[in-house]
# Entry
Amino acid sequence: MRVLGIETSCDETGVALYDSEQGLLADALYSQVEMHAEYGGVVPELASRDHVRKLIPLIREVMAEAGLTLSDIDAIAYTAGPGLIGALMVGASTGRALALALGIPAIAVHHMEGHLLAPMLEETPPAFPFVALLVSGGHTQLVQVEGIGRYSLLGESLDDAAGEAFDKAAKMLGLDYPGGPLIAKLAQQGDRSRFTFPRPMTDRPGLDFSFSGLKTFTLNTVNDQRDEQGNIDPQTLADIAAAFEEAVVDTLAIKCRRAIQQTGYRQLVIAGGVSANARLREKLAAALQKERAKLFYARPKFCTDNGAMIAYAGCQRLLAGQQSDLTILARPRWPMDTLPAI
Ligand code: KG4
Ligand code: ZN
# Structure
């Protein structure tokens, strides 16, 4: 089965073609990051309009790259939520309409399920059951995964998502949006031990997270380090970036290890934009070694938003006989544990 995947939930337009026999045939991405950087964050109306401009050309690009035509597609998978309503509507209405015109089924895909299954596109995929750490710009969740649609929430952030914390801390350090990769880069030149940031909620039991306190701690540290003219020496900025990254990564690693111990599972999947973070991967690999557990993640371009993960997730549900009706489904909020099992 050949599935065209469409992702437009936030600030990247992603399209991909996945074949259940041959794997990924083609994928293309257009990131709006530069457009939103000027505003220091995603401007929803601009995002929707840009998806309108880029989606059809990207679909053409993917079909050309695969050397196929629209008549070679068996189904369409589109992201139906969670995300920005206007942005979602572009992919949902295009995907649904295209499927109707071609006389093929469409399936509405949950964005976070897409992220969660993205590591399945790699050469050595995890096998069910596993624990998943979903860390994106909007979500931080630990999920017990028994199969597709068989998800139990083990813990989540009570306030900011990990990616959001990276983005906000980056702003305080004078870095652009999205801040995660920029903090990671700056942190490489930093001394990780000069400042010690808190590891929120690690001193009590449970698997929930809280990152908003780290934000305040970062702001106070930045302000303490300013000279009389309000300037900060570049090395100090790098040291703060390193201390911040270390605190977030350590906190995530402590909770992941706890989730592995609690479930008795021996596989941890990390997914979503923050799973691209090299320090997180390094720390988790070390933490999991002690538990004799294995770590799985997607290649960097499939950690952040993309069409391939949507095509893959949609394909699995379609193969199980599921499909969506003619409704153009767009749900800004959509709890993942309400999804049907396959
Ligand atoms: O999954 P994603 O592309 O979009 C959402 O579904 O939210 O995640 C984007 C988030 C942003 O907050 C970005 O700063 C963060 O992922 N991110 C990173 C890295 N790459 C992306 N955070 C830390 N380190 C990275 N290397
Ligand atoms: Zn995402």
Notes: The pocket of KG4 (ligand 1) is lined by residues 10, 136-138, 163, 166-167, 178-181, 184, 272-274, 276-277, 304-305 (CB under 6 Å). The two ends are 17 Å apart (CA to CA). The chain is about 40% helix and 20% strand.
